[in-house]
Design brief:
Blueprint lengths: L3 E4 L3 H13 L3 E6 L7 H4 L3 E4 L7 H4 L1 H11 L3 E3 L9 H9 L3 E2 L4 H8 L1 H10 L15 H11 L3 E5 L9 E3 L5 H16 L4 E5 L5 E10 L3 E13 L2 E7 L4 H17 L3 E10 L5 E7 L6 H8 L3 H9 L16 E8 L11 E2 L2 E3 L6 E5 L6 E2 L6 E9 L2 H14 L1 E3 L5 H9 L1 H4 L7 H4 L6
Parallel strand pairs: 1-2, 1-4, 2-3, 4-5
Antiparallel strand pairs: 6-7, 6-8, 9-10, 9-12, 10-11, 11-14, 12-13, 14-19, 15-18, 16-20, 17-19
Bound molecules: adenosine-5'-diphosphate.
Length: 445
């Protein structure tokens, strides 16, 4: 195991990683920007390295400075968490060059999977089902609109380098195709510095189902699925699991393991799919890192995914077999974002009061505390509230009780929306697609 690891992240995930490192007996180091100098993960670290920048995001994005910090303190590995540098293949490569372990897959694998077009191709040849779409990047409108015609409208135009739902355009008819294509290309260029886009069949009435995988470069196991269809602006708000029957879980689970093995994957990965109303699966992408919602899987399997990811990075082979992954109960996670619950506009500010629920089967992952100044320049995720019930109905009741107990004074949060969802008949009946929030836009009256 490593002696000293540097966390290149902030907020709840930095704290989550710090806990895992401590349990493994590893010294916890962290870089931080000015806004986070008093934050819990910084205060609880053994060593904190300030990287103050005039643009707060740059503190976490200046990868040469992060690598230099790791060298200066003698850290053998860097944990990137999610977001920021987690999917940056240049950063992973620079770590490799400096002899620092990047906790995640190789730079080569990140770069392959970071390109949605290449990832689609790789996973299709590994036997995963993909939606009909373009096999290479789209350069001219004519070829693209011919392809869209062939696939059949509606189609979705997506950025090859995409993430966070940025730039995606759903197109229902040919007349608006060109303008949507241009819009997606320009958004992709400004967000990712890469204007390549591709076209895919838009799966109507789809559900978002994803598989958690752990691989060691040679072998892979899966930890079942999470259901994440309740999204705003293509970003998840509520996640839960399990969702599928054991037979379907085994079938798709085996295929994702094949997919991970085919690219020599090492570490934690999430294979995202859409599932249509007939139950057919379509591969979307692989997220090559720990995910916000890994907590749901930890609750229903009892395994600590973050620790497992670190152990694999330290050179261990898979310490578990597929038959040791046993599912028990039902977990639901609500993301408690500091946002207006109707328009989802970020609501930064100081937490004058802050109380989180506890008790049997209730878990809160958060860096929030009384007096915490929620900055406006970062992601609005303030806390993750996760519950485990013996079944889905108990999990819903537990979530309702837990939401009621949660006190966050000083910022607006999406708690009222979560409360309305937990009481909504379609949610209770599992009648949920990725359009859920659009279809239930008046949940808060
Ligand atoms: P990103 O990496 O930007 O998050 P994804 O490919 O993972 O993009 O898709 C994010 C979300 O966008 C999906 O969960 C779904 O809601 C929607 N989406 C993406 N592709 C399709 C598609 N082919 N049909 C319908 N919805 C889609």
């Amino acid at each position: 195991m490593f002696k000293r690891v540097l966390i290149a992240n902030r907020g709840e995930i930095a704290l989550r990683i710090s806990r895992a490192l401590r349990e493994l007996g590893v010294e916890v180091c962290i870089i931080h920007g000015r806004e986070d100098r008093l934050s819990l993960p910084v205060r609880l670290s053994d060593r904190a390295i300030p990287l103050y920048r005039s643009n707060p995001l740059d503190s976490y994005l200046d990868y040469e400075a992060v690598i230099q910090a790791a060298i200066d303190i003698g850290a053998e590995a860097i944990h990137p968490g999610y977001g920021f540098l987690a999917e940056n293949s240049h950063f992973a490569k620079r770590c490799e060059e400096e002899g620092i372990t990047f906790i995640g897959p190789s730079a080569e694998v990140i770069s392959l999977l970071g390109d949605k077009i290449e990832a689609r191709k790789a996973m299709e040849s590994a036997g995963l089902p993909v939606a009909r779409g373009s096999e290479s990047a789209i350069s001219d409108t004519e070829t693209a609109s011919k392809l869209a015609e062939k696939i059949g409208y509606p189609v979705i135009i997506k950025a090859a380098a995409g993430g966070g739902g940025i730039g995606m355009q759903i197109v229902n008819e040919e007349s608006v195709f060109e303008s949507a294509l241009n819009l997606c290309q320009s958004r992709a260029k400004s967000a990712f510095g890469d204007s390549r886009v591709f076209v895919e069949k838009y799966i109507e009435g789809a559900q978002h189902v994803e598989f958690q995988v752990l691989a060691d470069g040679t072998n892979a196991i899966h930890f079942g699925e999470r259901f994440c269809s309740i999204q705003r602006r293509h970003q998840k708000l509520v996640e839960e699991g399990p969702w599928l029957t054991p037979e379907v879980r085994e079938e798709i689970g085996n295929r994702v393991c094949e997919g991970a093995i085919s690219v020599g994957y090492k570490g934690l990965a999430t294979f995202e799919f859409l599932r249509d109303k007939h139950g057919d699966f379509y591969f979307l992408e692989v997220n090559p890192r720990v995910q916000v919602e890994h907590t749901v899987t930890e609750m229903i399997t009892g395994h600590d995914l973050v620790k497992l990811g670190i152990r694999i990075a330290a050179g261990e082979k898979l310490p578990l077999t597929q038959s040791q992954i046993i599912f028990s109960g039902h977990a639901i996670q609500c993301r408690l974002n500091a946002e207006d619950p109707i328009k989802f506009v970020p609501s930064p500010g100081k937490l004058w009061d802050c109380h989180f629920p506890g008790g049997n089967g209730v878990r809160v992952d958060t860096h929030a505390h009384i007096g915490y100044e929620m900055p406006g320049c970062f992601d609005s995720l303030l806390a993750k509230l996760v519950v485990l019930g013996v079944d889905r109905n108990e999990a819903i009741s537990k979530m309702k009780a837990a939401l009621k107990e949660t006190t966050l004074i000083g910022v607006e949060t999406v708690i009222p929306l979560h409360q309305a969802i937990m009481d909504e008949p379609d949610f209770i009946a599992r009648d949920i697609t990725i359009q859920y929030l659009e279809k239930h836009h008046n949940l808060l009256g």
